[in-house]
TrEMBL record:
This is GMP synthase [glutamine-hydrolyzing]. The gene is guaA. It catalyses: XMP + L-glutamine + ATP + H2O = GMP + L-glutamate + AMP + diphosphate + 2 H(+). The chain holds residues 194 to 511 of 511 of the full protein. Residues 2-193 form the GMPS ATP-PPase domain. Keywords: ATP-binding, Glutamine amidotransferase, GMP biosynthesis, Ligase, Nucleotide-binding, Purine biosynthesis. One of its GO terms (molecular function) is GMP synthase (glutamine-hydrolyzing) activity. Its EC number is 6.3.5.2.
Length: 318
Protein backbone atom coordinates (compact mmCIF):
# COMPACT_ATOMS: atom_id res chain seq x y z
CA UNK A 1 0.00 0.00 0.00
CA UNK A 2 1.19 3.46 -0.91
CA UNK A 3 1.66 5.79 2.04
CA UNK A 4 3.15 9.27 2.02
CA UNK A 5 5.52 8.43 4.89
CA UNK A 6 6.96 5.42 3.14
CA UNK A 7 7.23 7.42 -0.09
CA UNK A 8 9.22 10.12 1.66
CA UNK A 9 11.54 7.63 3.33
CA UNK A 10 12.22 5.65 0.17
CA UNK A 11 12.58 8.68 -2.06
CA UNK A 12 15.00 10.43 0.26
CA UNK A 13 17.17 7.28 0.33
CA UNK A 14 17.07 6.98 -3.45
CA UNK A 15 17.94 10.63 -3.90
CA UNK A 16 20.89 10.34 -1.49
CA UNK A 17 22.24 7.41 -3.41
CA UNK A 18 21.67 8.90 -6.82
CA UNK A 19 22.98 12.40 -6.08
CA UNK A 20 25.80 11.72 -3.63
CA UNK A 21 27.70 14.98 -3.20
CA UNK A 22 26.46 16.51 -6.45
CA UNK A 23 24.94 19.96 -6.64
CA UNK A 24 21.38 20.31 -7.87
CA UNK A 25 19.54 23.40 -9.13
CA UNK A 26 15.76 23.74 -8.92
CA UNK A 27 13.38 26.51 -9.96
CA UNK A 28 10.74 27.23 -7.33
CA UNK A 29 7.47 28.68 -8.58
CA UNK A 30 5.63 29.16 -5.31
CA UNK A 31 3.34 26.30 -6.30
CA UNK A 32 2.75 22.98 -4.63
CA UNK A 33 4.77 20.71 -6.91
CA UNK A 34 8.08 22.55 -7.01
CA UNK A 35 7.85 23.24 -3.27
CA UNK A 36 7.29 19.59 -2.34
CA UNK A 37 10.04 18.46 -4.73
CA UNK A 38 12.37 20.97 -3.07
CA UNK A 39 11.56 19.68 0.43
CA UNK A 40 12.28 16.09 -0.56
CA UNK A 41 15.60 17.06 -2.11
CA UNK A 42 16.41 19.26 0.86
CA UNK A 43 15.93 16.28 3.16
CA UNK A 44 18.23 14.20 0.99
CA UNK A 45 21.05 16.62 0.13
CA UNK A 46 20.57 19.78 2.24
CA UNK A 47 22.67 22.72 1.11
CA UNK A 48 23.64 21.02 -2.13
CA UNK A 49 20.15 21.87 -3.37
CA UNK A 50 20.24 25.37 -4.87
CA UNK A 51 16.74 26.77 -5.29
CA UNK A 52 16.00 29.75 -7.50
CA UNK A 53 12.77 31.69 -7.18
CA UNK A 54 12.28 34.23 -9.95
CA UNK A 55 10.00 37.22 -9.64
CA UNK A 56 8.70 37.88 -13.15
CA UNK A 57 6.71 40.88 -11.98
CA UNK A 58 3.51 39.02 -12.82
CA UNK A 59 2.91 37.28 -9.52
CA UNK A 60 0.09 38.03 -7.10
CA UNK A 61 0.31 40.99 -4.76
CA UNK A 62 3.21 40.53 -2.26
CA UNK A 63 3.63 36.95 -3.40
CA UNK A 64 7.35 37.14 -4.14
CA UNK A 65 8.27 38.50 -0.71
CA UNK A 66 5.82 36.30 1.20
CA UNK A 67 6.70 33.05 -0.49
CA UNK A 68 10.44 33.72 -0.47
CA UNK A 69 10.23 34.33 3.24
CA UNK A 70 8.29 31.12 3.70
CA UNK A 71 10.89 29.14 1.73
CA UNK A 72 13.66 30.57 3.89
CA UNK A 73 11.68 29.56 6.97
CA UNK A 74 11.56 26.00 5.66
CA UNK A 75 15.36 25.96 5.70
CA UNK A 76 15.73 25.84 1.92
CA UNK A 77 18.89 27.15 0.30
CA UNK A 78 16.95 29.59 -1.87
CA UNK A 79 17.87 32.65 -3.88
CA UNK A 80 15.17 35.15 -4.81
CA UNK A 81 15.84 36.88 -8.11
CA UNK A 82 13.76 39.94 -8.83
CA UNK A 83 13.72 40.14 -12.62
CA UNK A 84 10.43 42.06 -12.85
CA UNK A 85 11.88 44.90 -14.88
CA UNK A 86 13.45 42.53 -17.37
CA UNK A 87 10.14 40.75 -17.97
CA UNK A 88 7.97 43.86 -18.08
CA UNK A 89 10.35 45.67 -20.41
CA UNK A 90 10.44 42.67 -22.76
CA UNK A 91 6.63 42.55 -22.76
CA UNK A 92 6.10 46.23 -23.50
CA UNK A 93 3.91 46.76 -26.54
CA UNK A 94 3.13 43.05 -26.98
CA UNK A 95 -0.56 42.15 -27.02
CA UNK A 96 -0.78 38.77 -28.75
CA UNK A 97 -1.30 36.00 -26.15
CA UNK A 98 1.15 33.56 -27.69
CA UNK A 99 3.76 36.26 -28.18
CA UNK A 100 3.37 37.22 -24.51
CA UNK A 101 3.79 33.58 -23.44
CA UNK A 102 6.86 33.11 -25.63
CA UNK A 103 8.45 36.29 -24.37
CA UNK A 104 7.95 35.27 -20.75
CA UNK A 105 9.31 31.79 -21.47
CA UNK A 106 12.37 33.18 -23.21
CA UNK A 107 13.18 35.68 -20.47
CA UNK A 108 12.63 33.04 -17.80
CA UNK A 109 15.13 30.74 -19.48
CA UNK A 110 17.67 33.56 -19.81
CA UNK A 111 17.32 34.56 -16.16
CA UNK A 112 17.41 30.98 -14.92
CA UNK A 113 20.42 30.15 -17.08
CA UNK A 114 22.32 33.17 -15.76
CA UNK A 115 21.61 32.10 -12.20
CA UNK A 116 22.48 28.46 -12.81
CA UNK A 117 25.86 29.55 -14.17
CA UNK A 118 26.65 31.18 -10.83
CA UNK A 119 26.55 27.77 -9.13
CA UNK A 120 29.94 26.08 -9.46
CA UNK A 121 29.90 22.54 -10.79
CA UNK A 122 26.15 22.03 -10.74
CA UNK A 123 25.33 18.59 -12.11
CA UNK A 124 21.55 18.20 -11.94
CA UNK A 125 18.37 20.04 -12.77
CA UNK A 126 15.50 19.08 -10.46
CA UNK A 127 11.90 19.57 -11.53
CA UNK A 128 8.55 19.24 -9.80
CA UNK A 129 7.04 17.31 -12.72
CA UNK A 130 4.08 15.17 -11.64
CA UNK A 131 2.41 12.26 -13.41
CA UNK A 132 -0.26 14.25 -15.27
CA UNK A 133 2.55 16.46 -16.71
CA UNK A 134 4.21 13.33 -18.03
CA UNK A 135 1.09 12.01 -19.75
CA UNK A 136 -0.03 15.34 -21.20
CA UNK A 137 2.22 16.83 -23.80
CA UNK A 138 1.92 20.30 -22.31
CA UNK A 139 1.97 20.92 -18.59
CA UNK A 140 -1.25 22.48 -17.39
CA UNK A 141 -0.03 22.97 -13.90
CA UNK A 142 2.79 25.40 -14.24
CA UNK A 143 6.53 25.33 -14.64
CA UNK A 144 8.66 26.20 -17.60
CA UNK A 145 8.14 22.94 -19.51
CA UNK A 146 5.71 24.37 -22.04
CA UNK A 147 7.86 27.36 -22.79
CA UNK A 148 10.99 25.29 -23.17
CA UNK A 149 9.50 23.62 -26.22
CA UNK A 150 9.07 26.83 -28.15
CA UNK A 151 12.64 27.76 -27.26
CA UNK A 152 13.93 24.69 -29.11
CA UNK A 153 13.59 26.42 -32.48
CA UNK A 154 15.75 29.32 -31.43
CA UNK A 155 18.80 27.09 -31.84
CA UNK A 156 20.96 25.58 -29.10
CA UNK A 157 19.76 24.64 -25.65
CA UNK A 158 20.60 26.86 -22.70
CA UNK A 159 23.26 25.20 -20.54
CA UNK A 160 21.01 24.35 -17.61
CA UNK A 161 18.92 22.21 -19.90
CA UNK A 162 21.94 20.04 -20.64
CA UNK A 163 22.08 19.01 -16.99
CA UNK A 164 20.92 15.59 -15.87
CA UNK A 165 17.31 15.72 -14.77
CA UNK A 166 15.89 14.49 -11.46
CA UNK A 167 12.11 14.43 -10.96
CA UNK A 168 11.14 12.92 -7.60
CA UNK A 169 7.37 13.43 -8.04
CA UNK A 170 7.10 12.00 -11.53
CA UNK A 171 4.87 9.09 -10.49
CA UNK A 172 2.46 11.05 -8.28
CA UNK A 173 -0.91 12.68 -8.73
CA UNK A 174 -1.63 16.10 -7.26
CA UNK A 175 -3.48 14.81 -4.19
CA UNK A 176 -0.57 12.46 -3.46
CA UNK A 177 1.88 15.35 -3.78
CA UNK A 178 -0.16 17.27 -1.21
CA UNK A 179 -0.16 14.26 1.14
CA UNK A 180 3.60 13.87 0.75
CA UNK A 181 4.00 17.54 1.61
CA UNK A 182 1.77 17.18 4.65
CA UNK A 183 3.73 14.19 5.88
CA UNK A 184 6.85 16.41 5.80
CA UNK A 185 4.92 18.97 7.93
CA UNK A 186 4.78 21.55 5.17
CA UNK A 187 2.43 24.47 5.68
CA UNK A 188 -1.17 23.61 4.76
CA UNK A 189 -1.60 27.05 3.22
CA UNK A 190 1.22 26.35 0.81
CA UNK A 191 -0.01 22.84 0.02
CA UNK A 192 -3.57 24.03 -0.60
CA UNK A 193 -2.67 26.79 -3.03
CA UNK A 194 -4.65 27.05 -6.22
CA UNK A 195 -2.82 26.39 -9.48
CA UNK A 196 -1.40 29.56 -11.00
CA UNK A 197 -0.13 29.80 -14.58
CA UNK A 198 3.59 30.27 -15.25
CA UNK A 199 2.96 33.48 -17.27
CA UNK A 200 1.03 34.74 -14.28
CA UNK A 201 -1.06 37.87 -14.50
CA UNK A 202 0.20 38.51 -18.05
CA UNK A 203 -2.45 36.17 -19.45
CA UNK A 204 -5.13 37.73 -17.24
CA UNK A 205 -4.47 41.22 -18.57
CA UNK A 206 -6.03 41.06 -21.99
CA UNK A 207 -3.95 42.75 -24.64
CA UNK A 208 -0.87 44.79 -23.87
CA UNK A 209 0.64 45.10 -20.44
CA UNK A 210 1.76 48.07 -18.41
CA UNK A 211 3.02 48.30 -14.85
CA UNK A 212 -0.13 50.21 -13.94
CA UNK A 213 -2.37 47.42 -15.28
CA UNK A 214 -0.38 44.85 -13.32
CA UNK A 215 -0.82 46.91 -10.17
CA UNK A 216 -4.57 47.28 -10.70
CA UNK A 217 -5.03 43.56 -11.28
CA UNK A 218 -2.90 42.66 -8.25
CA UNK A 219 -5.16 44.80 -6.07
CA UNK A 220 -8.36 43.32 -7.50
CA UNK A 221 -7.06 39.76 -7.28
CA UNK A 222 -5.94 40.23 -3.67
CA UNK A 223 -9.41 41.40 -2.62
CA UNK A 224 -11.07 38.48 -4.40
CA UNK A 225 -8.71 35.83 -3.00
CA UNK A 226 -8.72 37.26 0.55
CA UNK A 227 -12.50 37.28 0.53
CA UNK A 228 -12.61 33.68 -0.68
CA UNK A 229 -10.41 32.80 2.27
CA UNK A 230 -12.41 34.72 4.84
CA UNK A 231 -15.67 33.23 3.59
CA UNK A 232 -14.15 29.73 3.75
CA UNK A 233 -14.63 29.30 0.05
CA UNK A 234 -10.99 29.15 -1.01
CA UNK A 235 -10.59 25.41 -0.48
CA UNK A 236 -13.89 24.64 -2.21
CA UNK A 237 -12.66 26.23 -5.41
CA UNK A 238 -10.07 24.63 -7.68
CA UNK A 239 -8.80 27.90 -9.10
CA UNK A 240 -9.83 31.54 -8.94
CA UNK A 241 -8.59 34.83 -10.26
CA UNK A 242 -9.47 38.10 -11.90
CA UNK A 243 -9.12 39.23 -15.51
CA UNK A 244 -8.48 42.83 -16.54
CA UNK A 245 -10.50 43.51 -19.67
CA UNK A 246 -9.36 45.77 -22.49
CA UNK A 247 -12.55 47.84 -22.39
CA UNK A 248 -13.53 50.98 -20.55
CA UNK A 249 -17.10 51.58 -19.64
CA UNK A 250 -19.07 54.53 -18.35
CA UNK A 251 -19.82 54.83 -14.67
CA UNK A 252 -20.84 57.52 -12.26
CA UNK A 253 -19.19 58.72 -9.07
CA UNK A 254 -20.82 61.59 -7.18
CA UNK A 255 -21.80 64.06 -9.89
CA UNK A 256 -19.06 62.91 -12.23
CA UNK A 257 -19.14 60.50 -15.10
CA UNK A 258 -16.26 58.03 -15.06
CA UNK A 259 -14.84 56.04 -17.94
CA UNK A 260 -12.80 53.26 -16.41
CA UNK A 261 -11.75 49.65 -16.48
CA UNK A 262 -13.82 46.50 -16.12
CA UNK A 263 -12.64 43.32 -14.38
CA UNK A 264 -14.05 39.82 -14.65
CA UNK A 265 -13.89 37.44 -11.69
CA UNK A 266 -13.50 33.75 -12.44
CA UNK A 267 -13.75 30.77 -10.09
CA UNK A 268 -13.90 27.18 -11.29
CA UNK A 269 -14.28 23.66 -9.99
CA UNK A 270 -12.11 21.05 -11.66
CA UNK A 271 -10.00 18.00 -10.95
CA UNK A 272 -7.26 18.46 -13.52
CA UNK A 273 -7.86 21.73 -15.37
CA UNK A 274 -8.84 19.88 -18.54
CA UNK A 275 -12.53 20.50 -17.94
CA UNK A 276 -13.98 22.98 -15.48
CA UNK A 277 -17.30 24.29 -14.23
CA UNK A 278 -17.85 27.82 -13.02
CA UNK A 279 -18.57 27.96 -9.32
CA UNK A 280 -21.93 29.05 -7.98
CA UNK A 281 -20.51 31.57 -5.48
CA UNK A 282 -23.06 33.08 -3.09
CA UNK A 283 -24.63 36.31 -4.39
CA UNK A 284 -23.83 38.00 -1.12
CA UNK A 285 -20.17 37.12 -1.52
CA UNK A 286 -20.15 38.51 -5.06
CA UNK A 287 -21.96 41.64 -3.95
CA UNK A 288 -19.51 42.39 -1.14
CA UNK A 289 -16.49 41.59 -3.25
CA UNK A 290 -17.67 43.73 -6.14
CA UNK A 291 -18.35 46.69 -3.84
CA UNK A 292 -14.99 46.34 -2.20
CA UNK A 293 -13.14 46.20 -5.51
CA UNK A 294 -14.92 49.24 -6.94
CA UNK A 295 -14.50 51.24 -3.74
CA UNK A 296 -10.87 50.41 -3.17
CA UNK A 297 -9.24 49.96 -6.55
CA UNK A 298 -8.76 53.21 -8.39
CA UNK A 299 -9.34 52.83 -12.10
CA UNK A 300 -11.99 50.09 -11.90
CA UNK A 301 -15.69 50.97 -12.07
CA UNK A 302 -17.29 47.67 -13.12
CA UNK A 303 -17.05 44.02 -12.03
CA UNK A 304 -18.57 41.04 -13.85
CA UNK A 305 -18.62 37.33 -12.99
CA UNK A 306 -17.64 34.76 -15.60
CA UNK A 307 -20.31 32.03 -15.92
CA UNK A 308 -18.66 30.03 -18.68
CA UNK A 309 -17.54 26.43 -18.31
CA UNK A 310 -14.66 24.62 -20.02
CA UNK A 311 -15.10 23.53 -22.72
CA UNK A 312 -15.62 25.59 -24.70
CA UNK A 313 -14.30 28.51 -22.61
CA UNK A 314 -10.81 28.03 -21.17
CA UNK A 315 -10.01 28.85 -17.55
CA UNK A 316 -7.70 31.71 -18.47
CA UNK A 317 -8.92 34.37 -20.88
CA UNK A 318 -5.76 34.27 -22.98
P1 LIG B 1 -6.80 26.93 -19.65
O1 LIG B 1 -6.83 28.41 -19.67
O2 LIG B 1 -6.10 26.36 -20.86
O3 LIG B 1 -5.89 26.52 -18.41
O4 LIG B 1 -8.15 26.31 -19.43
C1 LIG B 1 -5.81 25.23 -17.86
C2 LIG B 1 -4.86 25.30 -16.68
O5 LIG B 1 -3.55 25.60 -17.15
C3 LIG B 1 -3.09 26.83 -16.61
N1 LIG B 1 -2.39 27.53 -17.71
C4 LIG B 1 -1.06 27.63 -17.80
N2 LIG B 1 -0.08 27.20 -16.99
N3 LIG B 1 1.53 28.13 -18.45
C5 LIG B 1 1.22 27.48 -17.32
O6 LIG B 1 2.14 27.12 -16.60
C6 LIG B 1 0.59 28.60 -19.32
O7 LIG B 1 0.92 29.19 -20.34
C7 LIG B 1 -0.77 28.32 -18.96
N4 LIG B 1 -1.95 28.61 -19.57
C8 LIG B 1 -2.93 28.12 -18.77
C9 LIG B 1 -4.33 27.55 -16.15
O8 LIG B 1 -4.07 28.49 -15.11
C10 LIG B 1 -5.19 26.40 -15.69
O9 LIG B 1 -4.81 25.95 -14.41
Amino acid sequence: DWTPNAFVEETVEELKEKLGNDKVVLGLSGGVDSSVAAMLLHKAIGENLYCIFVNNGLLRKNEFEDVLHQYEGMGLNVKGVDASARFLDALAGKSDPEEKRKTIGRVFIEVFDDEAHLIQDVKWLAQGTIYPDVIESVSATGGPSATIKSHHNVGGLPDFMKLKVVEPLKALFKDEVRRVGASMNMDSHLLGRHPFPGPGLAIRILGDLTREKVRILQEVDAIFINNLRSWNLYDKVWQAGAMLLPVNSVGVMGDERTYEKCVALRAVESTDGMTADWVNLPYEFLQKTSNEIINKVKGVNRVVYDISSKPPATIEWE
